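User: Reviewer 2 asked us to show a designed sequence for the structure in our supplementary figure. I'm pasting the structure tokens here. Could you produce the per-position amino acids so we can include them in the response letter?
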């Protein structure tokens, strides 16, 4: 007999093996591949990170690994976080991230995670905070075409035009694309390829651009939606 709780229960989230490392964006440059073609890459100073907690189904209900990155003055860390780092036996770190992975049991608290987590050719997702553009109009923010630039249009060529009806619906719908703050939000660029790894310097060379300014925090993880055209494996 099926109970109501079992019927309404959400389907279990499928677990998969996932790797990741926190780092900072150094900037962009270009390198040559094996065919002497120029490849634009983003240099990421990955790690070193340290494992501060391993979550298990018996205790937390799911498998995950928590990693920490970035030095910080211990005086700037509050007491709950200080206790968390003390329990793990590591010095306080500035940033924390959690990776849900099926092989969490293979990690140990205090273990170091470096750029060698990924190899050349790996397909990854990179998350970061995009550059803030301040308040922007609809043409820059949403790609609107603007009003006509010929005769008959007053000096409002970059205005959005109509934003709603008059008597019906007599309001502006939520989510209407209008002018406002642009950027400075979490962004993920998917299916990027690791062009090369410099293990000694702790650098990842990732083909293409990644979110954020130089010096910004980024999280490099295994690709969630692998593109078969790039030779990735799920």
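Assistant: Here is a per-position design you can include in the supplement:
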């Amino acid at each position: 007999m099926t109970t109501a709780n079992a019927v309404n229960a959400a389907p279990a989230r499928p677990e998969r093996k996932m790797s990741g490392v926190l780092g900072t964006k150094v900037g962009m440059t270009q390198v040559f591949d094996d065919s002497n073609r120029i490849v634009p890459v983003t240099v990421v100073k990955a790690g070193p990170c340290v494992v501060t907690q391993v979550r298990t189904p018996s205790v937390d209900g799911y498998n995950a690994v928590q990693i920490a990155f970035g030095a910080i003055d211990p005086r700037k860390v509050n007491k709950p976080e200080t206790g968390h780092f003390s329990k793990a036996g590591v010095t306080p770190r500035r940033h924390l991230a959690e990776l849900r992975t099926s092989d969490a049991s293979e990690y140990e608290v205090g273990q170091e995670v470096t750029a060698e987590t990924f190899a050349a050719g790996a397909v990854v997702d990179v998350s970061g905070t995009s550059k803030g553009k301040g308040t922007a109009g609809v043409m820059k923010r949403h790609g609107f075409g603007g009003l006509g630039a010929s005769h008959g249009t007053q000096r409002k060529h970059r205005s959005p035009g109509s934003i709603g009806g008059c008597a019906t619906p007599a309001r502006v719908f939520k989510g209407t694309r209008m002018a406002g703050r642009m950027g400075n939000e979490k962004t993920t660029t998917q299916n990027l390829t690791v062009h090369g790894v410099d293990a000694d310097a702790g650098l990842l060379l990732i083909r293409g651009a990644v979110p954020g300014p130089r010096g910004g925090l980024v999280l490099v993880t295994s690709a969630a939606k692998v593109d078969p055209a790039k030779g990735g494996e799920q």
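For the response letter, you might also mention the following. Residues 67 and 97 are 5 Å apart (CA to CA). The first strand starts at residue 20 and ends at 32.
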